[in-house]
Amino acid sequence: MARKTRPEFGPLEERIGHQFTNRDLLEAALTHVSAVTTAKRAQSYQRLEFLGDRVLGLAVAEMLFETFPKATEGEMSQRLTDLVRREACADVATQWGASDWLRLGGGEVKTGGSQKKAILSDVCESIIGAVFLDAGYDAARDLVRRNWSPRMMAPKNPLRDPKTVLQEWAQARGKEPPHYRETGRSGPDHAPHFTIAVEVTGYPPAEAEGTSKRVAEQAAARAFMTREKVRDRKDKV
User: Fold this and answer.
1) SS3 for 72-104, per residue?
2) In whole angstroms, what separates CA 89 from the centre of its chain?
3) Residue-wise pLDDT tens digits, 58-100
C-alpha cells in the first residue's frame, strides 16, 4: 500500500477526534513492523501499541468504576475484558477507517493485512498511545470515552465469567468440569499470544486465542457456549 503523505492524515485525525501536534507519532502508530527494516523496528507501532494497551485499560477501568458504583470487582473485570478484547479494538479502528492509512510490507499487503483483526486491534491501541504522548492522558481518555461508552452501555457478551457459566452448565448435565489446555503460543516473550482449547466430555473441543492464558480460556469458554447455544439465564445486562 502506498504511503500516505502528511497532509492526507487530516481526514483520519477528524475521525479520531484529535489533531496531532506531532504527526510523527501518528505516522509511527500506522506503521506495521513489516514496513520497516529490522534495524528500525522502533519506528513501527509496536512500542506505541504496548503503551496504548495500558492507557486503554486504565481509561476503561475508570469509566466502569464511575458508571457502575454497585458493581463487584468480578463484574467490572468481566466488562473490562469484553471491552478491550481484540475484536472491540479492531471495530474501533475500522470505524476510524485506519486501514486506509496503514503502512505495510509487501507480504502483509498481499495477504490482506489491512483487514486483519490482529493488526487493526494493534493499530487502534497504538493510536491511543500516540494521542497519550501527543497531548496527555486527558486527551487519550476522552478518545476512549467517545468510542467505548456506547459499547460499555450495550455489552454484546454475558457479564458473568464465561468459564463459570460453562462449568455450571457442564455440572448440571453430570459432566466433569471443563478442561482447558494450551494448544499454541506465539509472539515475543514480552507480548505472547496463547491458543487455548476447552474440552467437555461428549463434546468437540472449542479453541480461542488471547493475549494471556486467562483471556484465551474465557474466549474458549465463550466459543464453546456460542457453538452449543449455551445461555446464562442469570445474566442481566
Assistant:
1) CHHHHHHHHHHHHCHHHHHHHHHHHCHHHHCEC
2) 4
3) 999 999 999 988 877 767 877 888 899 888 999 999 999 998 8
pLDDT of residue 7: 46
User: Hey, which residues are catalytic here?
Assistant: 53, 125
Q: Which domains does the chain have, with CATH numbers?
A: 7-153 (1.10.1520.10), 162-228 (3.30.160.20)
- Could you give the CA distance from residue 185 to residue 182 in angstroms, rounded to a whole number? 8
pLDDT per residue over 183-194, tens digit each? 999 988 877 889
Query: What tens digit of pLDDT does each residue of 193-210 get?
Result: 899 999 999 999 999 998
- β-partners of residue 209 are 195
Total Cβ atoms within 10 A of residue 218: 26
Residue 189 has what DSSP assignment?
A: T
